[in-house]
Design goal:
319 residues; mainly alpha; MetI-like fold; two-stranded antiparallel ribbon; 2 strands; 1% strand; globular; disordered C terminus
Length: 319
């Protein structure tokens, strides 16, 4: 049997056409998305790959890099200052993330029940997240200043002694944590609010019929159904919290020629990213700085995986 053009299915004739013709017809779409991939390749993928190569080298920014293999990572594991920065970062993360999530849940519940000015209140809570972190850090530095700070003035007004907010390791960590909590509480509250509003109202109506009050409904209905949103907030907070930098840099003064070991008193505010900045851009140890950056990446990745595994509800006990 001889096949003619009329007997060949249209799909077969279309697939037999040269692919380059279909690609040529779709060039406007490729041209539209090309800028993103070009920029990502130049300013995202290539620097990331080069930093990995640089982490195996010794380079001060001048001359040719010297290949040192795993020496930078061996030094990193035994670097007491880096280990101190890891501990500081996790302390700040714990002091900020836990209160932030609790306060954000409460604020979201209040906004969910707000009858009037709900839009205005949402904007007000979201403003700190879009405000310059440097500006907020300068403001918090004035509020928690020891000589004329508002925080100590309020403590003295109720008969309490001054607190060394910015001149003791734990005081610095607590101040940074308060700043991070203030910055991200409204943002996470809006996310929690979106999750709460996606819950079917019929579930609450059935609970009220069964005699459940607001508190019982919150703990028995809202929190369980809000679990996916809480996991998302926890993962995002982990990624951002373990990479805190600007808050510590501004509040502690940052590295300088007179203060090469930044982090404030006792290096209490020395976070992992601040230590990376110190080594790479203050001491010009770009190879060692790259190894610190990849060390931070691995720490964040491991902690995110742990948070995910212990937060997700496992319906299958064999998993």
């Amino acid at each position: 049997m001889t096949l003619t053009a009329s007997t060949v299915p249209a799909e077969a004739r279309s697939s037999a056409r040269p692919r380059w013709r279909r690609a040529l017809r779709a060039w406007p779409a490729y041209a539209a998305i090309a800028p993103f991939f070009i920029l990502f390749l130049c300013f995202g993928l290539y620097p990331t790959a080069y930093s990995l190569v640089l982490s195996f080298q010794k380079w001060n920014g001048l001359g040719a890099p010297e290949w040192v293999g795993l020496d930078n990572y061996v030094q990193l594991v035994s670097d007491e200052t880096f280990l101190l920065s890891v501990r500081n970062t996790f302390v700040i993360f714990a002091l900020s993330t836990i209160p932030m999530m609790i306060i954000a849940l409460v604020v979201a519940a209040m906004l969910n029940n707000a009858v009037r000015y709900s839009t205005t209140l949402r904007i007000a809570y979201f403003v700190p997240n879009i405000t310059s972190v440097v500006a907020m850090a300068i403001l918090f530095g004035a509020i928690f200043g020891e000589s004329f700070g508002l925080a100590n003035a309020l403590l003295n007004a109720v008969g309490l002694a001054d607190v060394k907010w910015l001149s003791s390791p734990f005081g610095i960590q607590l101040t940074i944590s308060i700043l991070i909590t203030y910055q991200w509480t409204g943002y996470n509250a809006i996310i929690f609010l979106a999750g709460m509003q996606s819950i079917d109202s019929e579930i609450y109506e059935a609970a009220r019929v069964d005699g459940a009050g607001p508190v019982r409904s919150f703990f028995s209905i809202t929190l369980p159904l809000l679990r996916p949103t809480m996991i998302f907030v926890l993962i995002v907070s982990t990624i951002t919290g373990l990479q805190s930098f600007t808050e510590a840099q501004v509040l502690t003064g940052g590295p300088s020629t007179t203060n090469p070991n930044s982090g404030g008193t006792g290096q209490g505010g020395l976070t992992m990213v601040l230590y990376f900045y110190q080594q790479a851009f203050s001491h010009n140890k770009f190879g060692y700085g790259a190894s610190i950056a990849w060390g931070i990446f691995l720490i964040v990745l491991v902690f995110v995986i742990i948070s995910w595994r212990y937060s997700v509800k496992r319906e299958d006990p064999t998993r």
